[in-house]
Each structure stands twice: as C-alpha cells, then as structure tokens.
Design goal:
By secondary structure, this protein is mostly helical. It has seven helices and two strands, in the order H-H-E-E-H-H-H-H-H. It has helices at 5-23, 26-29, 39-61, 72-85, 88-108, 111-119, 129-144; strands at 32-34, 37-38. Strand 1 and strand 2 (37-38) form a beta hairpin.
C-alpha cells in the first residue's frame, strides 16, 4: 500500500469534492464558469481525468504501462461538448465515483508499479488532488459570487 502523502491529499480532495457535490443545487450545477463551461461540465471533466488516470494505473499495475502523452487543450476542447451533455446531477455523481475508484487504485498500487511509474518520469500523477483542487477552487469562487 502506498504510504505517500499523496494518499492523504487525494483523500482530502475527494472529501472536499463529495461535500461540494452534496451542497450543490440544480441552479449551482448549471452555473456558468466561463468559456462555455458550467459547474456540472467541470465536474464531468474532473471525472474524465480521474478515469483516464485509473486506466493508465491499471496498465502500469499489469506491467503494461507506458507514457501516454496528451495535449490537454485539444482534449479539453474535444470533451467540452460531451461534458456539457452529461446531466448535471449525473456529472457530480460521476466525479465522486471516479475519484473513489482512482484513489482506491492509488492506495493499493503495488510498490513495483509505483517504482516503474517513477522510473518512467511519472507519466501518471498519483497526486489526484492537484487537478481536483484546481477545479474545486474554480467552482467555489464562482459559487461565492
């Protein structure tokens, strides 16, 4: 089991996500965040990146891991219509479920897989809290207005 500080950071971010989702009403979920993103669409975006990390971690765990470069601007532009199409409450549920799943995988990843990821230059960020936190702050700022 990973005993790194990212496990604690992931848990804190996951609980912050869960608490935020619990207090969001339907109007909050459709609140615009700019550039045609809404709170719900950003939650779907968080779910996507956590699920992507989960898929990559499963590959590393099987010994099939390899760098998986991405162009975040192109991916975000391509996924935006899909994120906007997800029913708002479902987007919040997906974000929580994806966070639960990837954090569980991070916590139970065998040491060999963690070592292989590190040797490869950390092509998968085990600290899922960083990305979640960035968007949770964005959502919280919008809700304060």
């Amino acid at each position: 089991m990973a005993e790194e500080s990212y496990v604690a950071h992931n848990k804190a971010a996951r609980e912050r996500l869960r608490a935020l989702a619990a207090r969001l009403n339907d109007n909050d979920l459709i609140r615009p965040l700019g550039d045609e993103w809404t709170v719900a669409a950003v939650l779907a975006h968080i779910a996507f990146y956590d699920l992507r990390a989960l898929a990559l971690l499963q590959n590393w765990e099987r010994g099939e891991g390899k760098p998986s470069p991405l162009d975040p601007d192109a991916i975000n532009a391509a996924m935006q219509p899909l994120c906007l199409a997800v029913p708002p409450r479902k987007a919040a549920q997906m974000a929580i479920a994806a966070a639960d799943a990837v954090d569980q995988k991070v916590e139970t990843l065998p040491p060999e897989a963690i070592s292989a990821i590190r040797v490869a230059g950390n092509p998968v960020n085990l600290n899922r809290a960083e990305h979640r936190g960035e968007h949770l702050e964005q959502i919280e700022r919008a809700l304060e207005k």
